[in-house]
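Sequence and structure are kept together here, with a separate record for every protein. A complete record is shown below as an example:
=====
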Amino acid sequence: MTKLSELKLELYAALSALGIMLLFGTIVYKFLEDWSWVQSFYFSVVTMTTVGYGDFVPTTEVSRLFTSFYILTGAAVAFTSLGIVGMRYLELREKKIVHHREKRLEKKINHDQNKY
């Protein structure tokens, strides 16, 4: 497997895990709390990112128990996934910068050699 294929697979896995957790939370809150789909998605995002505005709160024991586990697993998945995406982006930027520096250095060396 090539390096690019591994990178794409890793990014796909990270973003898929994030999407699945958001979808799972949205569905569970939709039915446990009888919120709209948008409210359920919003609460899932706010909970997973540990922002917790407090404008929506779980009202039943089951919802509170689910939320306790959802915060722990959701935050771990969210921050790990976003960390992987960020890390891979920075690696690609670094490679691009190094490549440009090498080309400039090569150009300078060729120019200096042609002067004499």
About this structure: The domain at 3-88 is CATH 1.10.287.70 (Helix Hairpins). Helices lie at 3-33, 37-48, 61-115. The chain has one domain: 3-88.
